Fold this sequence. Notes:
Blueprint: E1 2-4, E2 7-8, H1 17-21, E3 24-32, E4 35-36, H2 39-53, H3 60-71, E5 76-84, E6 101-107
Antiparallel strand pairs: 1-2, 1-6, 3-4, 3-5, 5-6
Helix pairs in contact: 2-3
GO molecular function, one term: 4-amino-4-deoxychorismate lyase activity
Enzyme class: lyase
Protein name: Aminodeoxychorismate lyase
Amino acid sequence: MYLINGAESETLAVNDRSVQFGDGCFTTARIFRGRVQLLSAHLARLQKACEQLFIPYDDWALLAQEMAHLAQPHQDGVLKVIITRGAGGRGYSAAGCVNPVRILSVSPWPE
């Protein structure tokens, strides 16, 4: 299952800068007994990465809520969170990219 900006989807715009330039950051967390392990550390890492990359993402409470909600039904699993700079025009300039995209996915814990 994938959540893109809070909605179930498997579609990402082809002009998203993560597709065009790998422009974004991610973290991968363990789910154990329905909870994201080290949740605050993962959020802190993402926040620092966004600051360093000048990605204007700021709704950390919503992201934490979505992470916890996705983890809850799973005894064991892996949660991946990606924050992209969002869609942009042609070329390398990130000017005008003011709507970051958050992508969350859950996978089974590897055997």
